Amino acid sequence: MGSAKYTRPVSTKELLKHARSLQQKKFRDLHGEFLVQGPKVVGELLASGWPVVEVLATGAMAERLGLRQAVIVPQHELDRVGTLESGNEVVAIARKPGSSENAPVGPEELIIALDGITDPGNLGTVVRIADWFGVKRLWCAQGSVDAFNPKTVQASMGALFRVSVQVVDLPMVLQQQIAAGVQVYQASMEGRSVFAMALAKRAVLVLGSESHGITAEVRALKGQLISIPGGGGTESLNVATAASALCMEFYRQRTA
């Protein structure tokens, strides 16, 4: 894990101040950097080849992980930088990816689109689910929670370094996909059971928040409504739970 390239030649005091500032979105946007915390997720970061600015760690954790170039910092200072209840023994600063144009949806590609997700833990969990089922791209509607929020990064458990997450003008992008012949599916309780359908392989799966569902502007695009059948009394499923069930069926049909 000690082979990452570190790029910030500043004093430890300045580095700690800068790292603390990245707890806030405005500074993540300003500097194009974000925090990665805990040995598990920092390990995923370093193994991924993602650009790393710096790694801060206690001496014991640096030795345990083989972090030859880590800045050694007392635990009490790391506790001020990190946001975890435990696991702040190592905190990395990573670079956010640059913006890029959306490539056309591949002939057998599934993309997940999230319409109005505001909970960072939910977003991170959906990123992790996408990674598990081989989904490489995830679109978030404008105004969604920041994908590089520390809670989102932590909930993704390293999947964020393998799944491209982009903020897009979702109604416009979905309209473009429909015009290009891509099948757009919208998760809705009023939809047809996903288990009773032959799902298209070139597709976008749209999920809304459990509080408000898919926005009226996106629903107006007339995508195919699909649902997860169930007979309980729960009003709706958590977006991550719904993503898992739906992606499982997409995966099952694609690999059958």
The largest beta-sheet arranges its strands as 7-6-5-9-8-10
Rg estimate, integer Å: 20 Å
CATH class of the largest domain: Alpha Beta
**What is the CATH-assigned architecture of the largest domain?**
3-Layer(aba) Sandwich
Notable features of this structure?
Alpha/beta knot, 10 strands, six-stranded parallel β-sheet, 60s Ribosomal Protein L30, Chain: A, 10 helices, elongated, 256 residues, alpha/beta, four-stranded mixed β-sheet, disordered N terminus
What are the SSEs and their pairings?
Layout lengths: L11 H10 L3 H7 L1 E5 L1 H10 L3 E6 L1 H7 L5 E2 L2 H7 L8 E6 L14 E6 L4 H13 L4 E5 L8 H7 L7 E5 L1 H10 L3 E11 L9 E6 L7 H4 L4 E4 L11 H17 L1
Parallel strand pairs: 2-3, 5-6, 5-9, 6-7, 8-9, 8-10
Antiparallel strand pairs: 1-4, 2-4
Helix pairs in contact: 1-5, 6-7, 6-10
Quickly describe the structure.
With 256 residues, this protein is α/β, with parallel strands linked by helices. 36% of the residues lie in helices and 22% in strands.
